[in-house]
């Protein structure tokens, strides 16, 4: 019984393989038939076309010249539209840079003016302190002269 079951399984597998092969051949022949039918339809379509539209060695030079001229005009129009925008962008960029630099220079000028005014105030303070010191030195010198003129025994120590 075992051998018959194994034989049956082998024969089933063999049958399935044969069926798959037949199916693939059938699909291939269907594809071949459809390809031939399509070629026939294409040939019939081309033969029905007007003589001017049929493929061949006819070359229309005027059409090529017109197409080339249209291409050149299109390229020139594209360049003509793009170049000014690029220039304006560079001008805007430089304008922005100039505004930034002007702002920076204005800020630096303001800071410098503030520093100068601060230094001028310090100079005035130092000058006023110098004049006070000069007055003090002069008064001290006068007092010294007076003390010297009063003599050694005179004065507040005596």
Automatic annotation (TrEMBL):
Gene Ontology cellular-component annotations: endoplasmic reticulum exit site; endoplasmic reticulum membrane
BP GO annotations: endoplasmic reticulum to Golgi vesicle-mediated transport; protein secretion; vesicle cargo loading
Keywords linked to the UniProt accession: Coiled coil, Membrane, Transmembrane, Transmembrane helix
Coiled-coil boundaries: 116-150
InterPro entries: cTAGE_MIA/OTOR
Keyword hit for rRNA-binding: no
Keyword Glycoprotein assigned: no
PANTHER family: MELANOMA INHIBITORY ACTIVITY-RELATED, TRANSPORT AND GOLGI ORGANIZATION PROTEIN 1 HOMOLOG
Protein name, per record: Uncharacterized protein
Originating species: Aldrovandia affinis
